[in-house]
Amino acid sequence: MSDLLAPVIRHAIAPLWARHERSDYLRHYRQLRETQFWPVERRLDWQWQQVQALLAHAYRSTKFWRERFELLALRPDEIRNFDDYRQLPILTKDDLRSDLNDLLAEGIDRSAWHHHKTSGSTGKSVEVYVDDPAQQWRRATTLRSDEWTGWRLGEKVALVWGNPEYVKNGWRGRLRNALLERASYLDTLWMDDAAMRSFVAEQRRRHPTLMMGHAHSLYLLASFIEREGLEPFRPRGILSTAMCLHNHERAGIERVFGTQVTNRYGCEEVALIACQCEAFGGLHVNSDGVYVELLRPDGSLAGLGEPGSVVVTDLTNRAMPILRYKLGDVAVWDQTPCSCGRTLPLLARIDGREADYVFTPGGQMISGISLTENLGVLLPEAAQLQIVQERIDHLRFRIVRGEGFGEASLERLAELVAQRFGGSMTYEVEFPARIEPEASGKYRFCVSRIGNPLAARLEAATP
Ligand SMILES: [Zn+2]
User: Fold this and answer.
1) Is the whole-model pTM more than 0.70?
2) Distance 330 CA to ligand 1 centre (A)
3) Are 195 and 186 contacting, i.e. CB atoms less than 8 angstroms apart?
4) CB of 279 within 8 A of CB of 339?
5) What is the pLDDT of residues 437-457, one digit of tens each?
6) What is the Å distance from ligand 1's center to 306 Cα?
7) Distance 212 CA to ligand 1 centre (A)
8) How far does the centroid of ligand 1 lie from the alpha carbon of residue 46, in Å?
9) DSSP β-bridge partners for residue 294
């Protein structure tokens, strides 16, 4: 199954297309293949230069940051290192929503800005503007980590994704897809049996070298192939993005497709944050694009192995300076270096969103991701599962029954609830035919309707 078009795209069409678009992403990409091996000190120096320039720019060009500095009675040049930088108050999603216009830089040509909008699992979306040079830099950092899966630029891709983008752009979009992106979509908003069956048949003809999608959607596809006894296609790499990858889901996907899953973490606001490499250890932080801090509830830095709230600085976006932006996720620094030799720092894992934590009646916090993980292992006969915390002492389990689900399963669930939450937790169970993803195509395993004491503590602690 040799793919003669792939090298032509890689060496001729992609460079020509980039020139046509006046994009520097391929030049950036060649540079990024070197910076990933830079000595740690050199990278920190580079990051600091970027932050310094960004602080000066933000002060000069945006009302929002000028006012923040004035409130602190601080000038950007008084921030001399990363320790000083932590004096800058946390930027929140609410800031992005309420002060969008004041965050946009004045005096830059806005005609080429890119507009991104998150669907936001909290139901409220966030808008972000990115200038074109920053967008091309993002594109290059993403390409670098895409290739860590074993896929190379120009090769075919299978996307398990909501809302195919290229269709919106008419014939230009289709041409670009045919000659450059080469993506075939399984639209996760219409992921019924017929759609999955024809997608699998199509990929068996196409032989994509990369499959990419949200973790849970990939898992649903793998489960379908297994249940129906279909012959799967065999991509070289599988990239799981945009949400937490449970261990049992990873195992299911790898069993069906016969290849390891690469885990990636990112968001619309700053794009790629971290990604596993071909050694499948921790997730390498995209330090060429973002500066990442993991913070304790009191605002100090979390140590190795200690969970901390993820705070990111976008190192290149001048259109809308995003400095110390709290994503609402919790992650942990990895203590073991990666065997690949890249010096990009490592996250051991992403625990998920702070909002995705549930609480025991006694106030103890349980990560929703580890809880659904736990339930997934103990209740393998549940095809899909979602936990909704309605009150501090009441949970609602939404379970899509799989083969073998019965009384014994419910007894095990009762045991687990008593064990993890104590005797005063009550719960109900409902059995929907399927659990729908959100408008973004992402699934939520754990929905809290009781607010988040941890987030409230962190917000109160930061100046
Ligand atoms: Zn590595």
Assistant:
1) yes
2) 21
3) yes
4) yes
5) 766 556 677 887 876 554 444
6) 21
7) 19
8) 21
9) 310
- Are the CB atoms for 208 and 1 separated by under 8 Å? no
Burial class (CB in 10 A: 0-12, 13-18, 19+), 408: exposed
3-class secondary structure per residue, 397-429: EEEEECCCCCHHHHHHHHHHHHHHHCCCCEEEE
Q: What is the pLDDT of residues 124-170, one digit of tens each?
A: 678 999 999 999 999 999 999 999 999 999 999 999 986 666 666 77
- AA letter at 402: G
- Tell me the CA–centroid distance for residue 372 and ligand 1, in Å: 28
- Please give the residue that has the higher pLDDT: either 363 or 46: 46
- Work out the burial of residue 73: count CB atoms within 10 Å of its CB; fewer than 13 is exposed, 13-18 middle, 19 or more buried: exposed
105 neighbors 57 (Cβ within 8 angstroms): yes
Cα angle vertex 142, ends 139, 148, to 5°?
A: 145
Per-residue pLDDT reduced to its tens digit, 399-452: 989 888 999 999 999 988 888 888 889 999 999 988 877 665 566 778 878 765
Give, in order, the Cα–Cα distances in Å from 333 to each of 209, 278, 304, 348.
Answer: 31, 19, 5, 5
